[in-house]
Amino acid sequence: MNAGSCPEEDCEEDCPKRSRLWRIYALSMFAVVVLFALVAYAFDGKFGAEKALTGLFLPVGFVWLNLTCATLLSWLRSATKLVRCLLTTAVLVVSLITTSPLPDFCFRFVETPLEGEFQPDVDPPLDLLVVFGGGTQAGPHRAEVSAAGDRLVFAAQLISQGHARKLLATGDETADQAVEIWTKLGISEDLVSTLPGKTTFEEISNLKSVVGEWPDGRIGILSSAYHVPRVQRLASSAGVHRLIPVAANHLSSVRPYTTLDFIPSLGPLTKFTDFQREMMGRLVGR
């Protein structure tokens, strides 16, 4: 017998145990899936049940499903207290950050109404609208808008409707991509320009000289609603004042929740990641 191998009688004893564990695990997974499907069907009909089943087997949902089953198994099979506590904490945290309620609550906290926010139908036009990068990506054949593309769309609306006279896109590659998108939408190249910067901190530092060229101009700063307060804070710290906040890309949900909002998915996780990044930026002053 090789060193470290199990005696035959031990293997015979362990195999049924492992088999039972796998059966319990599979039954737990089946029970959770059926429960979610039935609840979704009760509230949202066949469409809801189909979406629930799909969501549970997409990557984020499948990770949550397995983590939940492992937690149930730890309680059913009398795992150590530490293991039960760690798994239970993990499944609770993952549940909170991958379903809609908590990320929405977080974004309602950071997307509070901005003091002096630009009101297009009431306020005089902006002489210069600074659009912060983050709403574009490089496509295979052309520049494309990304998840935060409402920044570019709203800026294009404002200049097309006469609420802004010139656009300034910040960032390195993102600025050039923004200009490409705007000009293809029919906005004259004479009305758009760029400002380099790899981070919001660098963009604000570079913006200081631009603001000095417009001593009496009305200058707006446009970014995602959750990001504008940090832009304002960094601008104030850098001595850049007189900036008028313009919010786009609001992410907090205003619609009633459905059962599908409680299926773990990538959307809420992405929103929570953006919120966390924003809070970390505030914490370190960047």
Task: Label this structure with key terms.
alpha/beta, two-stranded antiparallel ribbon, 9 helices, 286 residues, 2 domains, five-stranded parallel beta sheet, Rossmann fold, 10% strand
Q: Would you write up a description of this structure?
A:
The protein has helices at about 10-55, 60-75, 80-100, 100-110, 150-160, 175-185, 200-210, 230-235, 265-285, and strands at about 130, 135-140, 145, 165-170, 190-195, 220-225, 245-250. With about 290 residues, it is an alpha/beta fold. The protein folds into two domains: about 10-105, no CATH class; about 115-250, HUPs (Rossmann fold, 3-Layer(aba) Sandwich). The strands form two sheets. A five-stranded parallel β-sheet has the order 5-4-1-6-7, sandwiched between helices. The model has no long low-confidence stretch (mean pLDDT about 85).
Secondary-structure blueprint:
Blueprint: H1 8-56, H2 59-76, H3 81-98, H4 101-110, E1 128-131, E2 136-138, E3 143-145, H5 150-160, E4 167-170, H6 173-184, E5 192-195, H7 200-212, E6 219-224, H8 228-237, E7 243-248, H9 266-284
Parallel strand pairs: 1-4, 1-6, 4-5, 6-7
Antiparallel strand pairs: 2-3
Strand content: 5-15%
Question: What class would the helix/strand composition place it in?
Answer: alpha/beta
Q: How does the major sheet shape up?
A: 5 strands, parallel
Q: Stretches where pLDDT falls below 50 for ≥5 residues?
A: none
CATH class of the largest domain reads: Alpha Beta
CATH architecture of the largest domain: 3-Layer(aba) Sandwich
State the shape: elongated
Order of helices and strands: HHHHEEEHEHEHEHEH
Enumerate the strands of the largest sheet in spatial order, edge to edge or round the barrel: 5-4-1-6-7
